[in-house]
Amino acid sequence: MSELDELYQEVILDHNKSPRNFREMADANRRSEGYNPLCGDHVTVYVDLADGVIRDISFKGAGCAISKASASMMTTELKGKSEAEAEKIFDSVHKMLTGDMGVDESDLERLGKLKILSGVCKFPARVKCASLAWHTVNAALKGTGEVASTE
Amino acid sequence: MKAVREKRLPRSGNESFDVEKIRRDFPILKERVHGKPLVYLDNGATSQKPQVVIDTLDRYYKSENSNIHRGVHYLSERATSSYEASREKIRQFINAENGHEIVFVRGTTEAINLVAQSYGRTFLKAGDEIVISAMEHHSNIVPWQMLCGQIGARLRVVPINHDGEFVLDEYRRLLNENTKLVSLTHVSNALGTIVPVKEAVRLAHERGVPVLLDGAQAVPHLKVDVRDIGCDFYAFSGHKLFGPTGVGVLYGKSELLDAMPPYQGGGDMISLVTFEKTHYNVLPYKFEAGTPNIAGGIGLGAAIDYLNGFNWEEVCAHENHLMAYATDALSEIGSIRIIGTAKDKAGVLSFVFDHIHAHDVGTILDQEGVAIRAGHHCAMPVMQRFGVPATARASFAFYNNQGDVDALVRGIHRVLKVFS
C-alpha cells in the first residue's frame, strides 16, 4: 500500500464522509474548543462526564478529512471509557501519531481500531490535523477551560 | 483532458520569451519529489532562486565576506560597494527618485511594522483612522491593530466584492477628515486581485493622506514604478522576487522618512553617540540599525540584475497566458470553485471543493510532486469573507509552464479519485 493509500484508508474516508457523533450537545458538562492556528481548523468537543465516566461525547467543527475522521473515531472509542482510560488512550494516540518508537504492546492493544490512523506519522505536516481533537478532549476532561491549540 | 488542453494552446505571441530556457536557470526545478518531477506552484509563499543568485551568495561568502560601512580594509570596502550597488539597483527597479529612499529591512512584514511604529506613533493620535482593505495579509493588519492599541486610533476596512475586487466606491466613502493613513496590498496573496492602487493613492492624496502599499505579491509579476503610482511607502520582500530570504525593502519618500524617528537603535544608525545624546545617521542608515543581511542584500541585487535581462511585457504576457490557461483548466473540473475571480489578477489561483478540504488536496498533490499552498494564506479575514476555512492555492512565477498546469490538473483528478 502506498503511503497515500495508508493515509486515506476506506475507514478514514468513511468517517470523514459520515462523521459519528457530529453534533452539539446542549447538556454537556465539559466542553472545549481546539484550534490549529496554522491552517484555521477548529473543533469543539462536548463531553457528558458522570462519576468519572464519559457517558456521551460529540464534536462539531471544520477541518480536513484527517482531522474530521480522527475526531469521529475518537468519539466512538472514548464513549463509555473512564477518565483514566481516556487519558491512557490519549497518550497512546499521541505516541502513535508522532511516530514515537516507544509504542508498546499495551499501547497497540489500547489503540484498537485507532491504529488505522498510524499512517499519519509518515506525513509530518498532517500530525497536527489528527491530534487536534485529542488535544481538545484532553483539555475538556482536565477542565482547563482553555482553547486547546496544536501549537 | 488532453483534448481539452490541446484546444487551448494559443501561442502567447512572444516568441523570444523562452520559458524552457528560463527554467534551466533555476536548478531546483530539476529536483524530484516523491519520485516525480517537482512542479513548483507555491511561488506566492516564496520563489525559487536562479543560479546567478545562488552563485552570488556563494561568491560573497567565499571571497567578499566582511562587515560594511565600518572597515577601512579591502574586503569591507568591496562588501560595502556591492551592498550599496544593490540599493541602487533596487532604486532603478522601482524607479524611486533617490537611493536613500531605499531602506533595507528583513522583509515586507518588517517594512510595514517600521512605518506603523515610526510614522504611526509619531504622526497619528487617538481618534485618527487607518484604512486597509478586506484582503490584506495579516502583516498588513496586525501592525496597524497594534498601533491602534497603542495610540487609540481606529482601523477602517474597505470591503471586497464577490469576485474579490477592491470596491473603490466604498473606499472613497471611508476616506474622511479623520483618515490619516492608508495601507493597501498591491496584489492580494490569497486571491491574486490587482488593486487599483494608482487611483487609491490619488483619492487619498486629495485629502493629504499618505499611502503605504504592500507590494510583496506585486513585484514578481508587475512592473512597479513607485513614482508613477505616487505612493508614499512601498514594501516588498526579496525572497518572493527570486532573491534570498531575510532581506526586503521599504521605499519611502524622502520628506516622510526624514521626518520619521528611527525604528530601532544600535550601530550604523548613528552619527555620534555620547551618554547624553545620540545624533542619528542620515537616510537610509537611520533606519538600518545593526549589521544587516549583507549577503541577502547583494543577492537581491543579483536577482534584479537577472530580471533586468527580461522584457517585462513578455513576462506579463506569459504569466497572463498561463493564468488564463490554468483558470480554464480548473474551471472545467465541475466540483471546483475558484475563489478570487477579479478581472485583474496576477499569479494566484485559489480554489476549493465543496467536499474536500484544502489540506487533503495539498497532501495528495504533494505526492504527485506538485507543491501548492493549502490553508488560510495568512489572510483569515479573506477566508471568512468567502465562507471557507481554507483554500488550495496554486501561485505562479514566470518560470512555470503549461506542463506545470497540466500536472496540477492530473493531481486534482487523483484527489477526486481518492475522495470519490
How would you characterize the overall build of this protein?
- The complex is a heterodimer of chains A (151) and B (420).
- Chain A has helices at 3-7, 10-17, 65-78, 83-97, 105-111, 127-142, and strands at residues 30-36, 41-50, 53-62, 148-149.
- In chain A, 43% of the residues lie in helices and 19% in strands.
- By secondary structure, chain A is of the alpha+beta class.
- The longest helix of chain A has 16 residues, at 127-142.
- Chain B is an alpha/beta fold.
- Helix content of chain B is 40%, strand content 16%.
- Chain B has 15 helices and 17 strands.
- Chain B has helices at 2-7, 19-24, 51-64, 74-94, 108-123, 142-151, 168-174, 197-206, 226-229, 254-259, 294-307, 312-331, 358-367, 380-386, 402-418, and strands spanning 32-33, 36-37, 39-40, 102-105, 129-133, 154-158, 179-185, 211-214, 233-237, 248-252, 270-273, 278-280, 336-339, 348-353, 370-371, 373-375, 391-395.
- In chain B, a hairpin with a 4-residue loop joins strand 11 (270-273) and strand 12.
- The two termini of chain B are 18 Å apart.
SSE layout:
The complex is a heterodimer of chains A (about 150) and B (about 425).
Chain A: H1 3-7, H2 10-17, E1 30-36, E2 41-50, E3 53-62, H3 65-78, H4 83-97, H5 105-111, H6 127-142, E4 148-149
Parallel strand pairs in A: 1-4
Antiparallel strand pairs in A: 1-2, 2-3
Chain B: H1 2-7, H2 19-24, E1 32-33, E2 36-37, E3 39-40, H3 51-64, H4 74-94, E4 102-105, H5 108-123, E5 129-133, H6 142-151, E6 154-158, H7 168-174, E7 179-185, H8 197-206, E8 211-214, H9 226-229, E9 233-237, E10 248-252, H10 254-259, E11 270-273, E12 278-280, H11 294-307, H12 312-331, E13 336-339, E14 348-353, H13 358-367, E15 370-371, E16 373-375, H14 380-386, E17 391-395, H15 402-418
Parallel strand pairs in B: 3-15, 5-6, 5-7, 7-8, 8-9
Antiparallel strand pairs in B: 1-2, 4-10, 9-10, 11-12, 13-14, 14-17, 16-17
